[in-house]
Amino acid sequence: MYKKTYPKTFPKGFLWGGATAANQVEGAWNIDGKGMSTAEVVQKADDRRQMSMSDVTQETLQVALADTTVERYPKRRGIDFYHHYKEDIALFAEMGFKVYRFSIAWARIFPKGEDQVPNEAGLVFYDHVLAELAKYDIKPLVTLSHYEMPIALTQKYNGWAGRETITAFNRFTETVFNRYKKQVPYWLTFNEINTGTWGFHETGAIDKGLSKKEQLQIRYQALHHQFVASAIATKQLHEIDSTAKIGSMLARMQTYPATPNPKDVRAAQLVDEKNLFFTDVQARGEYPEYMNRFFYENDIVIQMAENDQAILLANPVDFISFSYYMTNVTAHDQVGDGAGNMAVGGRNPYLKESDWGWQIDPVGLRISLNTMWDRYRKPLFIVENGLGALDKLENGQVHDQYRIDYLRQHIEQMKESIKDGVDLLGYTMWGPIDLISFSTSEMSKRYGFIYVDQDDNGEGTLKRIKKDSFEWYKQVIKTNGEQL
C-alpha cells in the first residue's frame, strides 16, 4: 500500500550552523611558518560591484610579493580569528551551533605547497580549533581548498594548470586526513569549484590578458586536475577514516528563461547545464555527454592521464553541498552581464537586490534544492547562504531586521523542500561573524550575527558585538527551525 505521508519539518539532528574561510577570517598571514596564499595577493576592489579576485597578472603578483603590508591586501589580516578563535567559537556555541564549516589553509600546513614535511605549528593551530569545537559538541565541516592555495604553486606550475599540483594537493589531504581522523565527520574538497571558469582566484592559474580561447583551455584543464585530485582525496578519506563523509561544493546559480520563447528556455537550459556540469563529474564520476559539444565548439582539449576516468568513476562524493545567494535570467540574445559582482545573467524585474547587486530569491532556493535532489539522489547540504549588508553600529547595537527577514524567507523555503522529499543534511549560513568579503576584500560587506569592530582600512578594536540576528538565530536552532 502506498504510504501517503511526508516530512513536515526539519529532521531531528539537522545540522544548523555557520561557515567561514581561512583567508577571510584567520589573519596571521606571515607568522608561525605560514606561506603566502593566492588570496593574499589580491588587492581590494575599487568598485564594490566588480570582483577583484581574478585581476592578478605576473606584474601585480610581483608587486604583491614585494609588499609585506596588509593595507592593500585585507585578506592578510582577516578578523584575527587566529588569536580570537576561542572567543568566536564560544559565541557560535552560545547560538547553539551544531556544525561549523571552516577551511584549513593549505599554505599554513605546506607553506610552499609541496614541502616534504608539514609545518607542525599550522597543524597544531587546527588541533586547537578542533578541540575547542569538541568542547561545545560542535561538529566540524572542513573545506580543503577555499580559494587559498599556496602562491608558490602558481609561481612554479601556474597553479592547477600544472598536473604536478595534483600530487601536492593530495599530500596535503592525506596529511590532514591522518592528523584529524575521527575528529572531522564532514569534509569538502574544492569550494565553489565551478568558479574556476572565472580564473585565478579558484585555479591559481594566471591567465588574465589571454584570449578567451586560451583562457577556456587553461581553466577547464585546471578544473580537470581538480576533479582528479578530488577523487583521489575521496579515496584517501574512505581508506583513512571510513566513518567520515566527503562532498563536492558548487556555487549554485539557478537561471530562469527571460521569456517563454523556446529559444530563451533552451538558452537557460544551456546555462544551467554548464553550472551543474561540475557536480555531474564529482557526484556521478564521469564527464556528461552534453559537454562534448561545448568543448568541441570552443576548441578545448582536456589532456587526461590513462587512468583519470577510472579514478573519477570509482570515487564519487558522498554528498553534495552548494552555496546559494541569487538567481539570474537568461535570454538567447543576451548582451552583457547583470550589474552585480557575482551576476552572470540578466536582471529579474520581480526580485529585489542587495547593495552589491545580488538579486534576492528565496523561492529559487527551493527550486535549486528540488532540481539537485531529483538529478543526483544524494544528500544535499546548503553550506553558504546569507545577506551582505551595510550594517550600522549605533549605541553599541546593530539592528539588522533585514538580515533576519532574508534568512527567514530562505529557511522557510528549505522547509518546503524537505516537505517535497529532499534529503537535506544541514545549513551553514555564510559569515556568522563579520569577515573580509570574498569578491571585493572589503569589511563593509557584513554578513554576520556578530559584528566585528573593524573598518575597510583595518582600523578598530576587533571587539565582537552581538547583532539582533544573533538571538533570532539562537531561537531558530533551539526550536529546530520551528520558531522563525
From TrEMBL:
This is Beta-glucosidase 6-phospho-beta-glucosidase. Keywords: Glycosidase, Hydrolase. It holds the Pfam family Glyco_hydro_1. Belongs to the glycosyl hydrolase 1 family. The keyword Hydrolase applies. GO terms for biological process: carbohydrate catabolic process. Its EC number is 3.2.1.21, 3.2.1.86. InterPro entries: GH (IPR017853), GH_1_N_CS (IPR033132), Glyco_hydro_1 (IPR001360), Glyco_hydro_1_AS (IPR018120). GO terms for molecular function: 6-phospho-beta-glucosidase activity. The active site is at 384 (nucleophile). GO terms for cellular component: cytosol. It is an enzyme of class 3 (hydrolase). The keyword Hydrolase applies.
